[in-house]
Amino acid sequence: MKSIQVGLLGIGTVGSGTFNVLKRNQAEIKRRAGRGIEITMVADLDVARAQAIVGADVKVVNDARAVIANPEIDIVIELIGGYGIAKQLVLEAIAAGKHVVTANKALLAVHGTEIFAAAHAKGVMVAFEAAVAGGIPIIKALREGLTANSIQWIAGIINGTTNFILSEMRDKGLDFDVVLKEAQRLGYAEADPTFDIEGVDAAHKVTLMSAIAFGIPVQFDKAYTEGITKLASADIRYAEQLGYRIKLLGITKRAGKGIELRVHPCLIPAKRLIANVEGPMNAVVVNGDAVGTTLYYGKGAGSEPTASAVIADLVDIARLHSADAAQRVPYLAFQPGAMSDTPVLPMADVVTSYYLRLRVADQAGVLAKVTGILAETDISIDAMLQREADEVGGDKAPVAQTDLIILTHDTSEGKMNSAIARMQALPTVLEAITRIRKEELA
């Protein structure tokens, strides 16, 4: 049987990994796919560098549209990234009747609804396993392996940069800024790390998982996003003393009135497996009504781990290339006409528990005022920790201050916002209150 011919747009880190793994494991992949899969054409602005990677047998051009226009190309792999030209090229490939494989989570999180609709109308496939959690096959697990389940919630460490930073802050007691520089030196963080450290990258990924898990449209604009830039080493230390670890989680849950979709730092009990995922590794926990809780762990980035996911998509398309389009697994797991209009909840309606750190004057009555505000807001306290006071201000006018740590039971974000505003207004609360959400993941 004639080999599937593939055109590759962009041969950077992931593109070169894809080419090398596909070439190295060609015989094994052919046995699994039922036919050969070959990258026969590459588009990259640096033609000389690309030609050196792929060798003389592969045609290299500097125009991506030349790949799309080639009638011999069956599948186009988009590894350019971003929202701009990548979107145009993906839609043009679909219009030309090409199947598409992409690792571009940003593109799909923002424009996925349009792209999937275009692919459905044309009868071609858009595969994106590599867009979430690198080499971990979480998209396939959600779309196929767990298809019998009503998914209840997903919680994932889905950004290796932030997990590396938090692991280093905990292990070495260093502040965020110091560890970020080290992460950049080691290549775990970009020169501009904004998308990672502000939670945007994780929000792209959890948006896609949420759509697949609950059969809702892709709605990145409704995801609550909060990064790790405001975390202090003191909070990581206090969390440890209370039996918790702090991780940046992407969370999506089935709630009473809608779907929760959020990214933010979380306290997780140290005994949970996901709390012990360290360094740049990724992990996703999925809870389904039939299967219970399952954990998926592995490398979330890198040349060959991501290439593993790209090639898995190529194999899927090769197997289904001639199948009736109506019998293929839908892009978002649910049939296009059966998507739900269940709303994504505003953050104020999300219910969870909280860690609060208040820097307060060490005076009589301070604790009573703080706990009184929580009680009046109908927020119950689960645990409390008060540190020994220290003297601040030097010899002239030393002021005794202390950290007051409070863990709450479940309450709504709206109630907590109200309580924090009232507590912050107290003259004895000396700094901005730190609030970190807490998830038991039981």
Annotate the secondary structure layout.
Layout: E1 4-9, H1 13-24, H2 26-33, E2 37-43, H3 47-54, E3 59-61, H4 64-69, E4 75-78, H5 85-95, E5 99-102, H6 105-122, E6 126-127, H7 138-145, E7 151-157, H8 160-172, H9 176-186, H10 194-197, H11 200-214, E8 224-225, H12 233-241, E9 244-254, E10 259-269, E11 281-288, E12 292-299, H13 303-320, E13 351-361, H14 366-376, E14 381-386, E15 390-392, E16 399-408, E17 411-412, H15 413-424, E18 434-438
Parallel strand pairs: 1-2, 1-4, 2-3, 4-5, 5-6, 8-10, 10-18
Antiparallel strand pairs: 7-9, 7-11, 9-10, 11-12, 13-16, 13-17, 13-18, 14-16, 15-16
Helix pairs in contact: 1-13, 5-6, 6-11, 8-9, 14-15
What is the CATH architecture assignment of the largest domain? 3-Layer(aba) Sandwich
In what range is the share of β-strand residues?
Answer: 15-25%
Reading off the top of the CATH hierarchy, the class of the largest domain is best stated as Alpha Beta
**Level of helix content?**
25-40%
The count of β-strands is 18
Number of helices: 15
Q: Give the full name of the CATH homologous superfamily of the largest domain.
A: NAD(P)-binding Rossmann-like Domain
Query: Tell me, what's the shape?
Result: elongated
Give the radius of gyration: 25 Å
Q: Write down the overall mean pLDDT.
A: 94
Query: What's the domain count?
Result: 3
